[in-house]
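I am still getting used to backbone structure tokens and would like to learn alongside you. Label the sequence line and the structure token line clearly, so we can match residues to local backbone shapes. Go ahead whenever you are ready, and we will take it from there:
>
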Amino acid sequence: MTAIWVAGAILAIWLIARWLVSSGSRRQENQWPQEVIDRYVDRVNVDDIGYDFGRALSADRCPYCNYRFAAAPKATRKKCPSCQKVFRRATMPGRRRVLLTIAEADALATVRSQEYRRRYREVRIKQFQYERKQARLAGSLGYIWRTAGDGDVCMRCRQNEGKYVGWDDEPAGGHVGHSESCPNGYCRCWASPVIPDP
């Protein structure tokens, strides 16, 4: 009975490893960000980042002249009837809507973008560590480096495309997903485990 259970467990590990290899080869570049957003990266909380606007935020007052609107503006961009300056509506943590100056909205977008890149990179590193652990259980000693294959791939990643890398042999700049040298701020490369035939 125990031998049957062990044989079933080995077969299951081998099938999972094969699935990882086949699903990895079908993975497309544009699937990663949405998958990560849905599964790991929650809405960026500006309060956690510590960005200070230097004033009280409101949903019904002009951020330039403090003119009070009869109702909170629904448009994303609007011109104030009092000072004639354009402002933007933004969504803050807790889905609270506020009105920001154009400079504040641009600064908020930059902060959110930097935080997203940082979190995405952390997720990619954790994902690599999980895939390495699973592949080692299946008997894999290394992987083939795969890139997204578009214009945003950095020179280091482009040179590593298709190369065999051992799980314990960390290349210069780190394993897949660890690099910060890519133009968009995080590495979108992925590992295709090499699993020996049973």
Q: What stands out?
A: The two ends are 22 Å apart (CA to CA). Residues 24-50 have pLDDT under 50 and may be disordered. The helical segments are 2-26, 31-39, 46-49, 102-137, 155-160. The chain has two domains: 17-42+121-194, 46-109.
